[in-house]
Prior knowledge:
By secondary structure, the protein is of the alpha/beta class. It has helices at 40-48, 70-76, 93-100, 113-118, 120-124, 135-147, 165-181, 194-200, 221-228; strands at residues 2-11, 14-24, 29-33, 53-60, 63-64, 78-81, 153-157, 186-190, 203-208, 211-216. Helices cover 35% and strands 27% of the residues. α7 links the parallel β7 and β8. α3 (93-100) runs parallel beside α6. It holds the Pfam family ABC_tran. This is High-affinity branched-chain amino acid transport ATP-binding protein LivF.
Amino acid sequence: MLQLQQLEVAYDESTVIRDITMEIRPGQIVCLMGRNGVGKTTLIKSIMGLLKAKSGTITYLKENMTNKTPTVRARKGISYVPQGREIFPQLTVFENIMLGLEARSKSRKEVSEVIYEYFPVLKEMKDRRGGDLSGGQQQQLAIARALVSEPDCLLLDEPTEGIQPNIVQDIQNVIRDIKKQNKNISILLVEQSFDFAKSVADYFYIIDKGRIVYEGETLVEEEVSHYLSV
């Protein structure tokens, strides 16, 4: 579904992502791990088109997306939940969710009840301003906004960062349910928590200094801890 081939991404003259090749298959949950500052968010942003690739290719559904805009990528079915959530604090919960519908060129312009089944609190608080929600509730809102467009590929950048344990469990359950209910949607998850990653992912990549240093279907803590510890 999504392939990166020898991807390099730079900020000005400083190369952050170096020669990364990876694949996310239909229905697969892939977890990208690594210390802070090694290039995980840069990689996610380049997949979404928010950062331009210096070299290499990004292919999605067999179409070259390397130079496509974020809008084109979103309309093709890639949805992004950024680190820090980036909801609109002055808009209501419902208005924030409705913005997600603009990502896809589909005729239906209503929020599926499935979204509220995933996150019941958002239905209860749909008339509240996004800025009045707790951090965990804002994270749920950001994920709901991404899911409402019915993406084929979901990019989640550290969705459990700074979130209270009960909401972490809710997010974990949602990811598992998405995989169970929709065999075609793929998820690329950036995550720091070893336990959370192992509980949901099918495949793992670890990045260090901008390069992939480990990949596989299993994650053995003793083998990879030196890439993840501060």
